């Protein structure tokens, strides 16, 4: 994936660039808003990671507004120290697809950027999801594995749907909390783990190969074992 | 306080020079400290109103007494004239003379004065010796001194001219009445003087009342601007306007004091509660740099330090969130919502975690529970209470999550059977970073209940921590949305209270 990082802090930028390259992405870096806007407008990227407060007269919000005015729909993730709810709302209103507050864990950033690029591709409505021998019919809301029907509670169904839509990607606990429960706070207890482990009981336990894996220090990933 | 007279008067465009002079004059007047005293203005106004009403009373009194006497005299003279005129019509001058002499001899009215003279102003009949020189114009009133026998008397006289060059004077000696009148006038003048004195005294009293009533307010404000936030305006207990003003000001001061306390708490907290984990992280890193024997040692130390830092960050975010909520800026995100849905979602989310620990959360609530608020914040507040309950409640004892509508309020109850909060700690547990004795050994930041308190206050509600015998019974009392039916009626689906936020997929 080709990712543009617009970030003026050299240490943070170096850390992010290194991490993204280690995850096999191609990364371009701009250290101010003007260069960032120029690169974003003239080149093709799969995602942009954008700081809000930038030197060079063009801040992150203006950069994005200019891009969107040119009907550029590249997925954008804001990475900002401005963490109040209002700031978040402003960022999303300006056309941002996601918002991550500094300081951040790299695993969270990586998972969110990869989720963004996937979202960009899914234009046509899907009616079926499949991971390995696990199948989900979105119309009849039924789940089968190896031809065997699995009964799920509504929330378990939504959790599984989210995981299957992001199959092959790391999904963090925060992403699950926001995407499945629509909660925007950090619970102190391991509530998400409990729900995932319950889902595992139904989806993985009766079958020889697990599909839902825990990624240490990051979250979960759903994938057929052979790919691992 | 001093309302600008000049500012209130629209400047006339026709005469700018005169206008500017007037404005200058007025602004000079406004600068004068005397006129800037509202107390003095009220006092002067009082004196003017008092003086005017006193004057009106005096004028009425004068008109009703001295004026009445005058009018009585004139009426008597007119009656006399009418009677004499009738006699003259009947018998001419001789009858007139006879009548005058009759009346004088019968002494009907000892104050009566008559004088009939011929064309040469020689007296023919009457009790005046000669024609008074001052009486000149005909058919008019005179008030003059006349010689009656051996003394002079003040008289009110009317002159009538008769055909044939005869002239007639009819009058009354008003000496005693004039004395009465002058007494009356003097009395009224004294009264006016007394009124002026009383009015001024009243004005001064009003001014000093004003000064005294406001002196307390201004002394308090002074003390506070010097930094003593404990001062409050004294309340007289009379329940008057000044008391209400004092109450309002005191409420405002209480709020300021609370905010200041918050700021102080936060700075103390940053000094203590953030320094500790930062020290720990720093020590770990330095220790690893000095003593790590191999790469895995180093790696483990770095990871632990990172998680320490994550803890610091979450405390920091908690603090900022509380500050943001307390600033009240989030009211813009308020919307209609159904607390029942919110609670059953949370019940579902935390129920699984509870069962995993051998605990159980019981949900006791009936839909709908409409209210107007910030969904995210309410979720977080109840979640914090549930997390506390999960942390402290022993296995096997159910945790209660209940909500009930009580009139115009909705009460949410989260009750556990844990160690509870000692009575002496209850007031303090909502302070930032305060952790009770029993909570110190468990993980946590000490911000959970502070956030709950902030959220509840933002929604004009209250947080009560009660004894659950054993355990804590936390009660959130929030205002219900009264106009819920109207709001719901507007939406297409009658149960669409939950804001529809599509899950990012």
Give an account of the 3D structure.
The complex is a heterodimer of chains A (228) and B (505). Chain A has eight helices and twelve strands. With 228 residues, chain A is an alpha/beta fold. Chain A folds into two domains: 2-121, Response regulator (Rossmann fold, 3-Layer(aba) Sandwich), CATH 3.40.50; 128-227, Winged helix-like DNA-binding domain superfamily/Winged helix DNA-binding domain (Arc Repressor Mutant, subunit A, Orthogonal Bundle). The radius of gyration of chain A is 19 Å and the shape is elongated. Chain B folds into four domains: 1-36, no CATH class; 66-182, Beta-Lactamase, CATH 3.30.450; 241-325; 331-490, Heat Shock Protein 90 (2-Layer Sandwich), CATH 3.30.565.10. Chain B is rod-shaped. A five-stranded antiparallel sheet of chain B has the order 2-1-5-4-3. Chain B has a five-stranded mixed sheet with strand order 7-9-10-12-11. In chain B, strands 6-8 form a two-stranded antiparallel ribbon. By secondary structure, chain B is α+β, with helices and mostly antiparallel strands. Classes of the chains: A alpha/beta (228), B alpha+beta (505). At the A-B interface, α6, α7 and α8 of A face α7, α8 and α9 of B.
Number of helices of chain A: 8
The N- to C-terminal Cα distance of chain A equals 19 Å
What strand order characterises the main sheet of chain A?
2-1-3-4-5
Shape of chain B: rod-shaped
Per CATH, the superfamily of the largest domain in chain B is Histidine kinase-like ATPase, C-terminal domain
Strand content of chain B: 15-25%
Looking at the chains present, what oligomeric state does this protein adopt?
A: heterodimer
CATH class of the largest domain in chain B: Alpha Beta
CATH superfamily of the largest domain in chain A: Response regulator
Provide tags for this entry.
A: 228 residues; alpha/beta; Rossmann fold; Arc Repressor Mutant, subunit A; 2 domains; 5-stranded parallel sheet; 4-stranded antiparallel sheet; 8 helices; 40% helix; 21% strand; B: 505 residues; Beta-Lactamase; 5-stranded mixed sheet; rod-shaped; disordered N terminus
